[in-house]
């Protein structure tokens, strides 16, 4: 099993979207997946409430008092446990990070988002000092243009590389299909191509991101992502 936490103090950075896209993509490939929604706005719980039929992934809530127990419970029966954290530094966030096999820091390619993402990375560094071990972490750029790299994006990539921080090669692109997932309570495969544009491009993007995630958490994955 692998526990992946999503952390960024800034709202709107793409934490919930990245978590949902990765979780549902891996589940569509046959993995067993759970998402713990710790965001006060409960975006993934609301996504789940819009669904009908059998659950596609396990979705639940967690609090400061229950987060460690919930992670341990889900880890016994799931290959992947995603934890969508709240946007502020707290004991809940600290506890989740301490149990994570990987902490992803989603940021949009803008100066403000980059600055807030740096706060999340600083929090991870503080946890490393407390735990006296390295915490596996990476930055993932979100809502990027799939064709053109902006000046801000190039600058952020250069800054991260100079700081020696890990940056995922795959990015979560700006796609209408990702927004439609929340609006319809659907996975990418469940969306109607006659109503939503760019589903196939979003699916390819999601598969690339999921494939790289597997490499980060498991050097020898038990299965491969079919692109």
Percent helix among the residues?
Answer: 40-55%
Oligomer: single chain
C-alpha Rg (nearest Å): 16 Å
Which fold name corresponds to the CATH topology?
Rossmann fold
Stretches where pLDDT falls below 50 for ≥5 residues? none
Instruction: Report the count of strand segments.
Output: 7
Biggest pleated sheet: 7 strands, parallel
Q: Write the CATH homologous superfamily.
A: P-loop containing nucleotide triphosphate hydrolases
Structural class: alpha/beta
Helix and strand pattern: EHEHEHEHEHEHEHH
Overall CATH class: Alpha Beta
Major sheet: arrangement of strands: 3-2-4-1-5-6-7
Strand content: 15-25%
Overall geometry? globular
Number of helices: 8
Named at the architecture level, the CATH assignment is: 3-Layer(aba) Sandwich
Instruction: Give the averaged pLDDT, no decimals.
Output: 87
Compute the number of structural domains.
1
Q: CA-to-CA gap between the ends?
A: 22 Å
């Amino acid at each position: 099993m692998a526990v992946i936490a999503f952390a960024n103090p800034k709202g709107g950075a793409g934490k919930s979207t990245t978590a949902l896209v990765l979780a549902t993509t891996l589940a569509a490939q046959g993995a067993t997946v759970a998402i713990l929604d710790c965001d006060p706005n409960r975006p993934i719980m609301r996504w789940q409430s819009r669904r009908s039929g059998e659950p596609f992934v396990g979705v639940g809530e967690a609090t400061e008092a229950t987060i460690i127990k919930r992670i341990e419970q889900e880890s016994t029966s799931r290959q992947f446990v995603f934890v969508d954290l709240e946007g502020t530094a707290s004991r809940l966030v600290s506890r989740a990070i301490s149990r994570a096999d990987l902490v992803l820091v989603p940021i949009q390619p803008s100066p403000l988002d980059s600055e807030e993402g740096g706060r999340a990375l600083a929090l991870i560094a503080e946890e490393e000092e407390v735990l006296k071990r390295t915490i596996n972490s990476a930055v993932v750029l979100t809502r990027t243009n799939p064709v053109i790299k902006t000046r801000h994006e190039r600058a952020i990539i250069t800054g991260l590389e100079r700081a020696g921080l890990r940056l995922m090669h795959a990015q979560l692109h700006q796609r209408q299909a990702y927004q439609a997932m929340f609006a319809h309570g659907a996975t990418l495969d469940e969306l109607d191509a006659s109503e939503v544009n760019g589903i196939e491009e979003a699916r390819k993007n999601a598969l690339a991101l999921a494939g790289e995630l597997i490499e980060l958490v498991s050097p020898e994955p038990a299965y491969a992502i079919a692109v």
